[in-house]
Amino acid sequence: MDFIHASGSNIHIRDGLGSIDVLDEVKSFFAFDQKFSYEGHFSSILAVQVTELADGVFIGCTVNHTVTDGTFFWNFFNTFVEVSRGVNRISRTSDYRHDSVLISPYVLKLPAGGHKVSFSDDAPLRERIFSFSRESIQKLKPVGGILTAQLLQWVAL
Question: Is residue 4 scored above 90 in pLDDT?
């Protein structure tokens, strides 16, 4: 794991929240920004970057998707929070099984030096920030549960 302390004393919280597009300054708060494909083989599993802003602090957590996925990351992160709070029993233990059709027993052979990125990392890429109210999320949760149940039924077929 990498722990990074950075200074962004010329950046204000409103700078990152005032736009629907992700600004380059905000991207710089995440240690793995601009890591492409094969580069992940030489990176830490997790990086936490604390950036001191002019009027606050931003904590950017990034995970190496070469070796794990977002679900595992959130389980780890929530467990870390519970341990930090001193709970006696973890509410949800991590699941290390990889029961997925996407997992293959075959090893991909890559050329020496790694796979070459097939696109320009300088090409313009528009990333957006989506913001949802608590009320909107509460309305979406039941729909997500129904869709998950339907998907599980389909997978069982």
Answer: yes
As a whole number of Å, the end-to-end CA separation of the chain is 41
Sheet holding 2-8, edge to edge: 2-8, 46-53, 57-63
Residue whose C-alpha is closest to residue 111's, from 21, 38, 49: 38
Looking at residue 150, its amino acid is Q
Average pLDDT over the chain reads 78
CA gap 139, 156 in Å, rounded: 27
State residue 8 phi and psi, 5-degree precision: -130, 50
- Beta bridge mates, 57: 52
Stretch 4-12: mean pLDDT, rounded? 91
Domain ranges of the chain: 2-130
Q: Strand runs (DSSP E) across 9-63, as ranges?
A: 46-53, 57-63
The answer to whether residue 146 scores a pLDDT higher than 60 is yes
Q: Where are the beta strands (DSSP E) in the chain?
A: 2-8, 46-53, 57-63
From residue 73, alpha-carbon distances to 16, 32, 41, 76, 79 in Å are 24, 14, 17, 5, 10
